[in-house]
Amino acid sequence: MANPINNISNLNPSIVSNGTPNEAKTKDIGKDAFLKLLVAQLKNQDPLDPQDQGEFAVDLAQFSQVEQLTEINKKLAEGAAGGGGAGLASYLGHEVVLKDQSVQVAGSDAGMLQVNPSTALSSLKVELMDANGNITGSKTFSNLAAGRQLVDLDQIGAPSGSYGFKITGTTTNGTPLTVDGKVAGIVSGFIPGPEQTLLVGSKEISMDDIAEVHLAK
């Protein structure tokens, strides 16, 4: 079994990835530095004009996200050393991106794709294609915001099997846009044991199949 995910991109609160350290943005800071800045801000605030409680709550929420992903990293390492279900449980409720870039259809269930349009879309169309490039099913989504999000391919209309996919979108001003996608889903359960497995939708996913872990939106 491959090593579990073992790095957090400079503790960016939105993603744990198997990518290289060079992918981390320089504007991100570590959790210790974040906590020191937060404490310094509280010490030096004007007592007659204290920090807005709403902004403070947002700061604490961001720190909580960082701590949550750090704990995932810790528990996954313990799981690799025999911690078993403790590491698997850390995935529950999180969004995972899979290494497999084929959509697996089983009955009406085709799983999910992660898309990340650079601008808002009036529509987005996902088409599944067989090995010969023939379109076997499609599904259209309306009014998507810009940024990372999941789209559910339930009832896409393709027979059970493995398919490639093509994603096209139309911006709010009518401009066509090609959109990249990744096979993804939300972890709903796990099966401990020698072959540790996560439940993503109706599918059992090996730990080796995971490329990224995100906080679910």
Protein model, in words:
- The protein is α+β, with helices and mostly antiparallel strands and 217 residues long.
- It has two domains: 1-90, no CATH class; 91-217, Immunoglobulin-like, CATH 2.60.40.4070.
- The protein is 23% helix and 35% strand.
- The protein has three helices and 13 strands.
- The protein has helices at residues 31-43, 53-83, 85-89; strands at residues 15-17, 95-98, 103-105, 112-115, 121-129, 135-144, 149-152, 161-171, 176-178, 181-191, 197-200, 203-206, 210-214.
- The strands form two sheets. Strands 1, 2, 4, 7, 10, 11, 12 and 13 form an eight-stranded antiparallel beta sheet that branches. Strands 3, 5, 6, 8 and 9 form a five-stranded antiparallel beta sheet that branches.
- Helix 1 packs antiparallel against helix 2 (53-83).
- The longest helix has 31 residues, at 53-83.
- The chain is flat and about 65 Å long.
- The relative contact order is 0.19.
